[in-house]
Amino acid sequence: MSARIEPITGRYIHLEIEGRPYRIYFEEAGAGIPLLCLHTAGAHSSQYRHLMCDEAVTDRFRVVAFDLPWHGKSNPPEGWQDEEYKLTSAFYVAAVEAFSEAMDLDRPVVMGCSMGGRVVVRLALEKGAALRGVIGLEGSDHPSPWYDNSWLESPEFLRGDFCAALVSGLVAPQSPDEFRWETLWHYYQGGPEVFKGDMHFYRTDSDYAHESGTIDTGTCPVYLMTGEYDYSCTPEDTIETAKRIPGAKAIIMKEMGHFPMSENPTAFREQLLPVLDRIAGGA
Amino acid sequence: MFECLTEAVTARPHLRHIGRYMRSSFLLEVGETLYHVTVENGAVAAVETGPFKMRSWDFAIRAPKEVWEFFWSDAPPPGYQDLFAMTRYRHASLEGNTAPLLHNLRYVKELLALPRTLRQEAGS
């Protein structure tokens, strides 16, 4: 057989989050230090597919990424049809914790992007001792809205093509067209209202700026990596966050936008590998 | 600068398809030059140059000429690569009824980028 088969495996796990059962889809590749990856709002774990095929990462890290409930191949909970999806800070943390426990991930590194890059701040605050470190991609410790809140009530937020068009400018002009459109396709695929529900977390329920200064980066190192073209989490947002967290390291990535791992995987790995080296070295 | 829209969209059936539900008129301000753009079912029916007296429009995008020039460059600097990047950093302003814009966001964004696209195509 000559077809190329990637080393990624995908499976389903059943677990409880806040006392409710969920069927969660996850993918993984590699072996070693657990590296748990969190996708952006309205998207899913495919954003990490390039990382999972990178032997420079998978030779030392067990890269695991799951689709949050309602996203990708993870189902919404039974009864979803009578509910409005709204991601809360507490649920997000509980979901990461439940998945991590169910998968027996021992002191994982948690790397999240965008809303995932925000939640890692809370994880470092509350669960730092159980983590080997956090990497916030396009992350900060407080919301920094770039459009009017009332837009969230527009019916367009029900549509994937609108979500894709909304975030399209967050991809850096230098990112290869193939991966630009692949990244945007993840947004085309989102279920109705899922992106809007994620925005509840991202815009109104994730302000950690008043407590992020208490993170113990000696126990849980914090790396914040942001693209210079990101106007959702701006480089200034990231630098200010890093200043509030003693010992946190901010890295501003040239010619990169809001989706580094999926929009320009080759350029991103150059930035990420030294960070993973440092984390692995300190393990 | 935006005079090219009618012909460029005509030559792009896929773009016309993306905007097929759009019926709207909007204002584009390039420094002191005003363009009034009328879109009918994805075709750019008219691009008129101001000044206008009591002309109605749904929404307006206003920016100095040098901002548009950054936007249309091959690799726009950070903050100039997208309509919302430009509004976030206050390089451009967005006014009026944003509904037709939201309904047809990819279409309008690609219209705005056409001067760059055409220049790049001519150079290639």
UniProtKB/TrEMBL annotation, chain A:
Keywords of this entry: Hydrolase
Top-rank taxon: Bacteria
Alphabetical list of InterPro entries matching this protein: AB_hydrolase_1, AB_hydrolase_fold, Carboxylesterase_BioH
Hydrolase listed as a keyword: yes
Residue span(s) of domain AB hydrolase-1: 35-270
Molecular function, one GO term: hydrolase activity
PANTHER family tied to this protein: HYDROLASE ALPHA/BETA FOLD FAMILY (PTHR43194), PEROXISOMAL MEMBRANE PROTEIN LPX1 (PTHR43194:SF2)
Name listed for the protein in its UniProt record: Alpha/beta hydrolase
Organism the protein comes from: Nisaea acidiphila
Source organism phylogeny: Bacteria, Pseudomonadati, Pseudomonadota, Alphaproteobacteria, Rhodospirillales
From TrEMBL, chain B:
Protein name stated in the entry: SCP2 domain-containing protein
Recorded superkingdom: Bacteria
